[in-house]
């Protein structure tokens, strides 16, 4: 099994303006994704994220030299609205799962990198 993080981006206004029927469609698509993952691998975690304006960003630098700002680092029409951390057999399976998410979303699939000799605390 390989581990992937699936990032889900959307336009916030599209969700805010969505009818209850459209929102149910989004929910159904997420459930289809989750079922696919459970059938072909496993979901390690996943969650919706608060809106981008609630973000805190640390700029490049070290220690106290890093500048802390409120909000996202860049202005985007779309924002990352959630993620899934999954294990699936390969990238083809990750793509097949991601195709089940709402078609209005931009979905980014990124392999998780194993760092030799690093053990998280």
Can you tell me about this structure?
Helix 2 runs antiparallel to helix 3. The two termini are 23 Å apart. The strands form two sheets. Strands 2-5-1-6 form a four-stranded antiparallel sheet. A two-stranded antiparallel ribbon has the order 3-4. By secondary structure, it is α+β, with helices and mostly antiparallel strands. The protein has helices at 12-16, 20-40, 91-98, and strands spanning 2-10, 42-48, 56-58, 68-70, 79-88, 106-111. The protein has one domain (2-58, 68-111): 2-Layer Sandwich (Alpha-Beta Plaits).
Quote the average pLDDT: 89
Write out the strand line-up for the largest beta sheet, numbering strands in chain order: 2-5-1-6
Q: So what's the overall shape?
A: flat
Give the low-pLDDT segments.
none
The CATH architecture comes to 2-Layer Sandwich
Number of helices: 3
CATH superfamily: Dimeric alpha+beta barrel
Structural class: alpha+beta
Total domain modules: 1
Describe the biggest sheet? 4 strands, antiparallel
Tell me the radius of gyration: 17 Å
CATH fold assignment: Alpha-Beta Plaits
Report the CATH C-level class.
Alpha Beta
Beta strand count: 6
């Amino acid at each position: 099994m390989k581990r992937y993080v699936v990032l889900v981006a959307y336009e916030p206004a599209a969700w805010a303006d969505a009818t209850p029927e459209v929102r149910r469609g989004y929910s159904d698509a997420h459930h289809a994704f989750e079922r696919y993952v459970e059938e072909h691998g496993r979901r390690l975690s996943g969650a919706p994220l608060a809106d981008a304006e609630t973000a805190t960003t640390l700029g490049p630098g070290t220690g106290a030299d890093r500048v802390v700002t409120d909000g996202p680092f860049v202005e985007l029409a779309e924002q990352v609205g959630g993620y899934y951390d999954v294990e699936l057999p390969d990238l083809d399976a990750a793509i097949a799962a991601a195709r089940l998410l709402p078609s209005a979303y931009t979905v980014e699939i990124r392999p998780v990198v194993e760092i030799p000799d690093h053990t998280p605390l």
